[in-house]
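Extended Data, panel c. Modelled sequence:
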Amino acid sequence: MRARNVHRRAPGPLRRRRADLPYSHRPRLQDRPVHLLRPPQTPDVTPARVVRDTELKILIQEAYNANYRVHGARKIWRHLNRQGWTVARCTVERLMRELGITGAVREGPDADGVDRAP
C-alpha cells in the first residue's frame, strides 16, 4: 500500500504544471488539422435516427392498434423483434412516449397479482 502512495505523490514532469502548456492538455479546436474537424452538416440531409424513428413509429402504432391498445412497451418490443425488426426496448419506450401511448394499467384490489386471502 505504501509503495503505491509513493508513486502517486512523487513529483515529476507530469505532476508539475509547465508554464508553456495551456491549462488543459486537450488540444484546442483551432489547433487541429482541418481534415480532423467535423464537416459542417447540410440541412437537407435527414439524420438516420430520424428516418428510422419515423418507420418505427408507424410500426409501433400499428402494433398498438392491432392489439386492442393494451400492449405496453415490452410486448410491442417483443412483437417487433418477432416481425424481424431489431430494435432496443428503450427505443420503443422513447417512441411510445413521443406518440403519447401507454399500455393498459391494471386497477383494483388485485392489481399486483398477489393473492391476499383473509
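The chain is about 40% helix and 0% strand. This feature is highlighted in the accompanying rendering.
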